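Student: Please help interpret what follows.
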Amino acid sequence: MNQYAQRIESLRALMRSRDWDAVILTGSDPHGSEYPAERYKQIRWLTGFTGEAADLVVTADHAGLWTDSRYFIQAAAQLDGTGVELHKTRVPDQVLIPEWLREHFRDVVEPVLAVDGLSIPDSFVDGIAEAFEPGGSQPCFVSAPDFLNYLWNDRPALPQTPVFTVDTGCYRWDKIARLREFCAGRGCDGILLSALDEVAWVLNVRASDIEYNPFVISYLLVTEDQVRWFVLKDEIEDPDSERSFGQLAAEGVTLDRYDAVDEFIQECGGAKIFVDSATLNHQLAQAIVTSGVSPDSGDSPVRAWKAVKNPFEVEGMRRAHIRDGVAMVQFLHWLEKSVMAERRVSEWDAAVKLGEFRSQAAGYQGDSFETISAFGPGAALPHYVTPRHDAPLLEAGGLYLCDSGGQYLDGTTDITRTVPLGDLTDLEREDYTLVLKGHIDLAKARFPEGTPGCRIDALARAPLWNAGRNFGHGTGHGVGFFLGVHEGPQDIRQNLNPVPLKPGMIVSDEPGIYREGMHGVRHENLLLCVELEQNEFGRWLGFEPLTLCPFETSALDLSLLDSSEIEWLDAYHLRVLETLSPLLSDDLARWLQQKCRKIANFAN
């Protein structure tokens, strides 16, 4: 029995001692975060699954992990031997956790379902309760915060990293005033923010409590007469935090213990507080109910506000992408020379080298997510985890995919480039071209104001669909300003998300294709939504590419591209060349000029 199977059995022993019929865990933290701190990677500790999106149910006779198509291959491999069964989501005839629990406990009068109340969204618990049919079996929920502490002896502590303030082009008190106006409009006495990126955005603060994400683990309560930040943990000893906290306190922000939020809520009986149930954890939601606070639930307004970047943020993102582009050109040049010289380079070596180039850029604060450095079959996993030890070597021939990004004081980047390391098969060349064709077709889109991303998603997929091919992940996600590399509410995917794209929003453009055991292709730029024109038919929007890095045109089957796509690619490469060349050494500038040459000049 491997260690993960043993841990599942230890959990079942704990369940028997407490008369729990099932335990439900989500892959999140007390703030509904996509990327949790090490302390809250409970599913990874229990099962060995390292994917970013998964939920877990353990009963006396079943252990199941629910995840989507990005992780099917990875989950099957990592769960082997653990006794945990994979349940696939975002597929036809999917059975999600609420429905599965209803069927599993159909003949149990009152099944006891235990949840880690700190790390499960209140909306998730509500969804399970609503799935059970009236008059039939009804679940009894037990909130057991941090119950894995009884099994996880070396569980990491709550992180506390230096807190610092950043310039965002908008004063924090202007944002707080906007929150107060929102509350007044809904007849609320205040608003409780639990999403970490929203707290960071409102207060103009950053830290490193979560890897790759510049967040401070905290809650923020804004009322008509006070701003209370629940952030203090251990003793503050670093000068950045002392300076930042001192400045905030001097401005009128009350600093409180992180774990005092429940206590303070208990003192607010009778008040009407706005909360976002998608990020509010179940434990805190229960405290709100028992205190007599009247919750007003809905989508936090901060998500929509921070999605539309102000002019200061837009210019910062442009500058950050220029520096990131320089690092990418340095990396791709190094990669090409290394392969040509037959140097021994592994996937991990390449990821480390890219990090070294980025670290030389001004304002660099670290990567925006874990670099995906994948050659051949590894690239067929959309969220491949590059092994630190015994990583596959890069070989001459085939396709290498690198998905990476940087956090800078003035922006966040996310870029994927797939490059040939030698001769390609006809299928590799065709896949490479069709994916880039879809990328270009979305990048050059024109659409009327009010159009949501779901209505233009097909532009990136059509070239693949016409060839009987597809990809399982979304085409585009929002990106923050020195915040999370993934943010909403906008996106570009097949899900029917009604949020319209607006000028100032930033989205990724990343179609792909993945052939298990063979190769994968993904091309990704970040795009800024901009106004193109106004005419008698209304206001028309489109995209400005922020990412500046050449695509490897030598891998293209030009017969698959039409003249407008070639024109876009030539114009994009001219922009890359003119922007980055002055910042490069002569040798790199000559290399970039060759990579950015016009398609019509290939024969030359």
